[in-house]
């Protein structure tokens, strides 16, 4: 036997094998921990469920109120919650769905509720007013425009998603 | 607004806007016949749904208090004093309108001696609040009461 073929001694061989196997074992233990640590980063951001609300053909240029149900998950229980939206079509047929929750203190606003509020949303609690596009009328209590729902149309049905701050105004 | 920390924090920062207090009145007792037990449970269920819906409509102006519970066999004079004490405290807190919701005709008879405005709802014949028919019925009642409340505000 030449010296060259003796390059790996018994001691070295054992060292290599143990390091290799030990390394695998260590990796096997660490991998799930690492996976868990970075999990929130890997999780795709949940895109908020869309709920079927009405047929697009029923929409008019005048805001109409539609109710729909969503499943709300709180820390302690899951419940079915009824939500509402004021929906109308703009002149260019673009669909607008506004949340009826007043940005002042959270009452429910009505389209043309009461006299002298034509073509506006009116909050019965403290007289807050909003234009048709959801913009708050200066001089009334609300300080922000009504939130708008994300909209999606599929096969002639209108789907609404989560309510987001109104970007139109 | 409701009796929880989140709404309470909102309330203490906007007291000047919240001028109406809603208190449901509920009889509670375990010492009763079976049909009375059912009736009391129904009152609780119905008034909870009812007042929650009203609170949702007028969240920014109405504070929904936890229910005032009383024993159906207690002496009415004593209960009235205790209830008026609640109303007094609410008034001192700045609530100009105190609405007492009940389905118990006992209170109706004492209405004039109460410090709050009594809203008496007849019990009706609803077996289950879950059916669609019942929902429509209750919703129409709620709509009428919201109009009543707005009328109170306009005074």
TrEMBL record, chain A:
<keyword id="KW-0812">Transmembrane</keyword>
<keyword id="KW-0411">Iron-sulfur</keyword>
<comment type="subunit">
    <text>The main subunits of the menaquinol:cytochrome c complex are a Rieske-type iron-sulfur protein (QcrA), a cytochrome b (QcrB) and a cytochrome c (QcrC).</text>
</comment>
<keyword id="KW-0479">Metal-binding</keyword>
<comment type="function">
    <text>Component of the menaquinol:cytochrome c reductase complex. The Rieske protein is a high potential 2Fe-2S protein.</text>
</comment>
<dbReference type="InterPro" id="IPR014349">
    <property type="entry name" value="Rieske_Fe-S_prot"/>
</dbReference>
<dbReference type="GO" id="GO:0051537">
    <property type="term" value="F:2 iron, 2 sulfur cluster binding"/>
</dbReference>
<dbReference type="InterPro" id="IPR036922">
    <property type="entry name" value="Rieske_2Fe-2S_sf"/>
</dbReference>
<dbReference type="GO" id="GO:0004497">
    <property type="term" value="F:monooxygenase activity"/>
</dbReference>
<keyword id="KW-1133">Transmembrane helix</keyword>
<feature type="transmembrane region" description="Helical">
    <location>
        <begin position="12"/>
        <end position="34"/>
    </location>
</feature>
<dbReference type="InterPro" id="IPR017941">
    <property type="entry name" value="Rieske_2Fe-2S"/>
</dbReference>
<dbReference type="GO" id="GO:0016705">
    <property type="term" value="F:oxidoreductase activity, acting on paired donors, with incorporation or reduction of molecular oxygen"/>
</dbReference>
<dbReference type="Pfam" id="PF00355">
    <property type="entry name" value="Rieske"/>
</dbReference>
<keyword id="KW-0472">Membrane</keyword>
<keyword id="KW-1015">Disulfide bond</keyword>
<keyword id="KW-0249">Electron transport</keyword>
<keyword id="KW-0408">Iron</keyword>
<keyword id="KW-0001">2Fe-2S</keyword>
<comment type="similarity">
    <text>Belongs to the Rieske iron-sulfur protein family.</text>
</comment>
<dbReference type="InterPro" id="IPR006311">
    <property type="entry name" value="TAT_signal"/>
</dbReference>
<keyword id="KW-0560">Oxidoreductase</keyword>
UniProtKB/TrEMBL annotation, chain B:
<protein>
    <recommendedName>
        <fullName>DUF2487 domain-containing protein</fullName>
    </recommendedName>
</protein>
<dbReference type="Pfam" id="PF10673">
    <property type="entry name" value="DUF2487"/>
</dbReference>
<dbReference type="InterPro" id="IPR019615">
    <property type="entry name" value="DUF2487"/>
</dbReference>
């Amino acid at each position: 036997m030449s010296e060259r073929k003796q390059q790996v001694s018994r001691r070295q061989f054992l060292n290599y094998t143990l390091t290799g196997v030990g390394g695998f074992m260590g990796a096997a233990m660490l991998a799930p921990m690492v996976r868990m640590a970075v999990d929130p980063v890997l999780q795709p951001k949940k895109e908020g469920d869309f709920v079927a609300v009405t047929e697009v053909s029923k929409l008019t240029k005048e805001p109409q109120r539609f109710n729909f149900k969503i499943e709300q998950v709180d820390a302690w229980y899951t419940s079915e919650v009824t939500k509402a939206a004021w929906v109308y079509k703009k002149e260019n047929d673009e669909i607008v769905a506004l949340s009826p929750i007043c940005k002042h203190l959270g009452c429910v606003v009505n389209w043309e509720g009461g006299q002298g509020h034509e073509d506006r949303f009116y909050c019965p609690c403290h007289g807050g007013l909003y234009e048709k596009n959801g913009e708050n009328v200066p001089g009334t209590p609300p300080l922000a425009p009504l939130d708008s729902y994300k909209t999606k149309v599929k096969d002639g049905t209108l789907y609404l998603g989560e309510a987001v701050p109104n970007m139109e105004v | 607004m409701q009796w929880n920390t989140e709404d309470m924090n909102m309330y203490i920062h906007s007291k000047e806007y919240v001028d109406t207090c809603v208190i449901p009145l509920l009889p509670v007792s375990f010492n009763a016949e079976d049909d009375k037990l059912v009736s009391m449970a129904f009152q609780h269920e119905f008034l909870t749904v009812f007042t929650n819906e009203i609170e949702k409509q007028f969240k920014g102006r109405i504070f929904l208090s936890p229910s005032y519970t009383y024993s159906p066999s207690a002496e009415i004079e004593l209960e009235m004093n205790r209830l008026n004490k609640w109303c007094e405290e609410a008034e001192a807190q700045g609530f100009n309108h105190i609405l007492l919701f009940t389905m118990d005709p006992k209170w109706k008879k004492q209405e004039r001696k109460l410090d709050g405005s009594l809203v008496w709802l007849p019990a009706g014949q609803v077996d289950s609040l879950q059916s669609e028919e019942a929902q429509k019925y209750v919703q129409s009642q709620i709509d009428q009461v919201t109009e009543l409340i707005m009328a109170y505000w306009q005074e």
